[in-house]
Design goal:
pyruvate-formate lyase- activating enzyme, 15% strand, alpha/beta, globular, binds iron/sulfur cluster, single chain
Length: 477
């Protein structure tokens, strides 16, 4: 079978070009290739030719590429914010190839398979959860309706579906890096491991998160279970990336890298034994309640230079309302321990959380001031489909049920939407957001960036025009 795999993560516009290797699509590609199917990857974000401002023209060009490959089937990785982009692409694909089997997988179809089919008449099936076992069955000739991981239109009424998670992660072949634009993904940049200018590759060592934060549905992608590769598999993969692409850094793309402390200890031992910690540095996302001085010391010896924590808020009331399962004190202690271990810390915080008060917002600013993480990311809360929080917002009438079903919720639109779910009035909220950004977030980023990147390298890192546009938006939005 000839299968086209489409990555829709983002666009290569200005400095927003995605630099995280698309692990989902490249892993499906290598699994299908192992079964001797013909596979191609059409990468929206990394392809210069597809870097158009005109979305319809981009979709038509992508459809032409897929048609030229003579694909029998197409699978798109669709994240939440790229759903409207996918709808346009689906129309273009079916216009030029009415007979092709069009499937969508990834985050959005996983949490909303029935809605995905309803809101996109061109879609033949929504793939729920991990893609490799289901795609292998489909490519070998099993009808979509007989594969439990698909919600297939042909089955009528969109019947129930069941995930098909990979039981033994080591049975997966390494991702098909050769089908990606690796010059793009492994170019020296300070954007993958923030502020450190390195050739960095993304590597997945485990899947799943068993925490149940109300604003997040990441665990659903991996059937709510945590599974991992063996230490030797991960070390072999990194050695292969060093050999083929001379990488200097690794971004572990796991949702919760330290969910199993023992397996990370074994992984660190393997890195140290093979001398990998001296050849590459790495970073990972971890929960604050999973770090302690002993494991941090082992990670430091194994090459860890930075840890990313989802702190979300500096207000205990907000953390409890999100069911984050952590405390402000534990978050503070995790940043301090990480600093003492000689590892940089980066904290993710959210603003615009439902019912957030001015006091909660200021508590987050105070947390940043006291904890002193090296880098802070503060992003606007977006109600994501499949989460407990969006269900509550819809049932209480604060959000319409079709929030994600129509058009107009692409990345840019979502952030520009005048959505204020906080307990503050919109003017007060925007004013405070600006104040916190310029007082606590931007200075930390600028200081850390200049520490690791000489001023004369800045024009190479950012296109200056884009940087000014970004700052303009921050100041006047
Ligand atoms: S926010 Fe992080 S810890 Fe919470 S469920 Fe999502 S991935 Fe897991």
């Amino acid at each position: 079978m000839r299968v086209a795999l489409v990555e829709l993560t983002g666009r290569r516009r200005m400095f927003r070009a995605p630099l995280w290797m698309p692990v989902y699509i490249s892993s499906v590609a290598s699994s299908l290739r192992e079964d001797r199917h013909q596979v191609t990857i059409v990468d929206h974000g990394a392809c210069e030719e597809l870097c158009q401002w005109d979305e319809a023209a981009t979709s038509r060009r992508m459809a032409e590429i897929i048609a030229a490959f003579e694909a029998d089937a197409v699978l798109c990785d669709v994240r939440y914010l790229s759903w409207p982009v996918f709808q346009g692409l689906a129309r273009a694909i079916k216009d030029s190839m009415p007979g092709v089997v069009l499937m969508a997988g990834g985050r959005h179809p996983t949490v909303a398979p029935v809605d995905s089919l309803r809101n996109c008449p061109e879609l033949d099936a929504a793939l729920v959860g991990e893609p490799e076992p289901a795609m292998r069955m489909f490519a070998s000739g099993t009808p979509l309706t007989n594969i439990t991981a698909f919600a297939a239109r042909a089955a009528g009424g969109f019947p129930g579906r069941r995930d098909m998670p990979v039981e033994d992660m080591d049975t997966l072949p390494f991702p098909a890096w050769d089908l990606l634009d690796m010059d793009h993904y492994t170019r020296k940049t300070p954007r993958v491991i923030p502020c450190l200018r390195l050739k960095t590759a993304a590597v997945e060592t485990s899947r799943g998160c068993t925490a149940g934060c109300r604003f997040c549905a990441e665990g659903r992608l991996a059937a709510g279970r945590h599974r991992w590769h063996s230490a030797s598999y991960v070390a072999d993969e990194i050695e292969q990336l060093i050999k083929d692409y001379a990488i200097e850094g690794v971004y572990f793309s796991d949702e919760s890298f330290l969910a199993n402390r023992e397996r990370v200890a074994v992984l660190c031992d393997e890195f140290i034994r093979r001398g990998l910690g001296k050849r590459v540095v790495w970073t990972a996302q971890v929960r604050t309640d999973s770090v302690d001085p002993e494991i941090l010391a082992a990670m430091k010896r194994a090459g860890c230079v930075q840890l990313e924590f989802g702190v979300e808020s500096g207000s205990q009331r907000v953390l409890d309302s999100l069911l984050k399962g952590s405390t402000v004190e534990a978050n503070m202690a995790a940043v301090r321990m990480t600093r003492e271990a000689g590892i940089r810390s980066m904290t993710y915080t959210m603003r615009g959380i439902p019912d957030e008060t001015l006091e909660d917002f200021r508590a987050t600013a105070e947390f940043i001031r006291q904890a002193r993480p090296d880098i802070v990311r503060m992003t606007e809360y977006v109600p994501l489909p499949g989460t407990v929080l969006i269900r509550r917002l819809v049932s209480s009438g604060r959000l319409t049920g079709d929030y994600w079903s129509g058009t107009g919720t692409s990345t840019t639109h979502a952030s520009k939407q005048p959505l204020n779910l906080t307990a503050m009035d919109t003017r007060e909220y925007r004013r405070e957001a600006k104040r916190i950004y310029f007082r606590h977030v931007f200075p930390r980023f600028a200081r850390d960036f200049l520490r690791h990147n000489p001023p004369w390298s800045i024009p190479r890192v950012f296109r200056m025009k884009a940087l000014f546009a970004f700052l303009w938006r921050k100041i006047f939005a």
